[in-house]
Amino acid sequence: MGDPLLADKPEPIWVPHLEWEAAIKERLGVSSGKWAVHCYKSVSSTMDVAQALTPEVKVGEHLLVVAERQSAGRGRRGRRWQDAAGGLCMTVAFSHRGPALAALPAFSLVAGLVIHEYFTGLGCRIGLKWPNDVWSADGRKLAGVLLEMVRGKKPALLVGLGVNLSAPPESVPESISISELCGRSLSVPQVAPELADRLAQAWSLFRVEGFEPFREGWMKAALFLGQQVKVWDGPLLRTGRFVGLGPQGSIEIEDQGVVHEVLSGDVTLVKGA
Fold it and tell me: Quick one: fold of 15-221?
């Protein structure tokens, strides 16, 4: 007999989005065998789906999961990602062979840079907010990145991207969309394969050389650089001038002539400084 506690637990329902899947496969050239593409109309989270599908991915393939809507999208530090209609919700899974686990968090900065470079190429005025958000120049959130690891026989790095394309979520007042910011009408099947391909190229370089090849580009796009900021370093609140990035993507804060490196946290601008 089965476990009675699990008998009534429903299986996740992922409704395929065949139109999107066909369009994205065509743009990626899936016949090359490089990508396994799965698109859905609704899921709990593209990260959940990618985690479930990763063991089925063939050697040498990257996995791309795209959804029209998420019922439980998530962001950093257990926060919920609020997506709006017409927004991009996607996760790419890369087989984890190469970089040490300690180096992997820096790829969230690389993913943010990939988003930044793609949309600035379309004429959008945006910047990077450490560690992995993309903001408009006037301080409204456009996109975010989430990293998770899948362990086991086929370890993989999951890279989740959320981008407001058509409209910002109503529940997040300080947010903006590509449509509003750049006057561009872009569809998910247009944007998802472009970002996926650029992420794959970045991952190939990151696996070999780490964050260093991306550090200068990230700094050029950084918001708050040279300004007074505050960031929590564990239980300690650091306040000082944002002066740079460390070799693994940590933020460098100068306070009274001493430079402190903070590996993770949330940065805010010190008003009036």
Answer: BirA Bifunctional Protein; domain 2 (3.30.930)
Give the pLDDT confidence of 115-150 residue by residue, as tens digits.
999 999 999 999 999 999 999 999 999 999 999 998
What is the identity of the amino acid at 159?
Answer: V
- The residue ranges of every structural domain in the chain are 15-221, 228-269
Question: Rounded to whole angstroms, how far apart are CA atoms 73 and 162?
Answer: 9
Q: Which CATH architecture has domain 228-269?
A: Roll (2.30)
**What pTM does this model have?**
0.90
Backbone angles phi and psi of 23, in degrees to 5: -65, -40
Burial of 103 (0-12, 13-18, 19+ CB in 10 A): middle
Q: Give pLDDT tens digits for 48-82.
A: 999 999 998 888 899 999 999 988 656 555 555 55
